[in-house]
Every structure is written in C-alpha cells, then in structure tokens.
Amino acid sequence: MADRPYIVVTNDDGVQAPGILALATAMRQLGEVIVVAPSINQSASGHKKTLFTDVPVSEVTLADGSPAYSVGGSPADCIAFAALGLLPWPPAIVVSGVNRGSNLGQDITYSGTVTAALEAAIHGVKAVAVSYANRDANAVEDYAEATRVATEVVKRTLEKELPPLTILNVNVPPCDRVRGIRLTRQGVRIYKDELAKDGNLYRIVGPEPTGNYEEEGTDVWALHNNYASLTPIHLDMTAHRFLADLAAWDITV
Ligand code: MN
Fold it and tell me: How remote is the CA of residue 169 from the centroid of ligand 1, in Å?
C-alpha cells in the first residue's frame, strides 16, 4: 500500500476529543494517518507559536486503541513540530478537526483548528480545516455527517493543488444531512461576549455568536441555510481593496 497518501490529523479541542477520533477514523479510509494534537483543549488559541518554554510531547492511545502524539503546546506547535522533525515530513495533506463548534467569519483568527491548517500551509503542505457547528457533539458518532463532508473535500484536495499559503476551511451545520456544499467567502460574525467578574478574576462569557445571515454566499449564510461551507483562505491578510484609498491619505515621513 505504498501509494496510499500519508495524512497528518490534528485539532485544537485536544487529542482525546471525539471529533479528532472521528476524523482520524474517516481519514484512514483514504490513507495512512498519524495523529498529533494538543494534550488539552486549545480552542481559541489562535496562531500561537510557543517559543519561550519547553513543550513536552508524549505518545498516547486514543479511545479506539490507536496511537497519537500528544503535544503540550498549541495546535500550530503540533504542525510546526511535525514539520521540523517530530514526524515524517511532508505528508500529502494535513487535516485539522473535526472541531466542536463552527469557525466562520472572524472566528478563523481565533481558531486553533484553522491556524493548525495555516501552519501546514506555511510549511508548504496542503491543509483542510473542518468544523462542526454543534457544541453538544460529545460522541464520536455525532461527527458522522461532518466526517462524510470532510472525506469528500479531502479526497478531491489530494488530487488537486492548492495555491501557496492557501487552505480550505470547511464548516458543517448541525443536521443529519446537509443540503449540499457551497463555495463561500468569509462572512461577518456578531459576537455577544460579556465580561464576567469575580473579585479580580475576569472571564469572557456569553451566548454563541450569531452573524449576518442576509449576505448570500458567505460561510455564515451557508451554515444558517443548512449547507456545508467551503471557503479558501490565504495568509495574505493585506486589505487589497483599501490600498488605493490609503494611498490617498498621503502619509509621508
Ligand atoms: Mn476547538
């Protein structure tokens, strides 16, 4: 089976989260899988790179008995470590998820699920991030529809090329069967965060973010209408459409 693609699977919910076991199981239908993931839940850690402390790595066993690497750092650390010598490199693809909860609009800058995929792109490897918009998905079986969608996207991505520094961000709505998959752009999230205070202890709390559901063609819109979303994302965060207006500010030094 030497021609089976080598697939690295990671996440941000932690190595023992049900979503990564569901994803790894699905990816084993497509190739040889190695799992490397944070030892604890690193959701909303963004594109964190651990530089100033040592990071422990251990070999652990997932609930189905399969082996995995558990990394005491961020999701991006997992992929950086893999690329820099922890794992055979390069794989044919890095697949990140399945995340518990969606990663839409501005979420992607917070998301460890997405940033692990971006880290793979920095290291020149194709990557797909997969999120399931159901925060109550606590069993491996709950991720069946998300892994079905992920499998179709990964299968095609293995056959195709992605441009440099570009990944695919996939989100799956919480339903038994999606209406299909839509090619989308990033939409606009609306956060309803509140600051909880207990003495000198503060914490961001509040309900799940909503979004602008009116703008057709966005990831937020697709999920709201029970479509899976497929958004290509790249690391060039330049506001290209603003460059001309900015030039008119005429800043000189
Ligand atoms: Mn997460």
Answer: 14
CA of 99 to the centre of ligand 1 (A): 5
Alpha helices in 132-184 (DSSP H): 144-159
Q: What is the CATH number of the domain that holds 40?
A: 3.40.1210.10
252, part of any domain: no
Residue 162 domain flag: yes
Q: Which residues contact 77 (CB under 8 A, 6 or more apart)?
A: 38, 48, 49, 50, 55, 71
Amino acid at residue number 75: P
Domain that holds residue 43: 6-247
- pLDDT tens-digit readout, 186-219: 999 999 999 999 999 999 999 999 999 999 999 9
What is the number of domains present in the chain? 1
| Confidence category of residue 3, pLDDT binned at 50, 70, 90 | confident
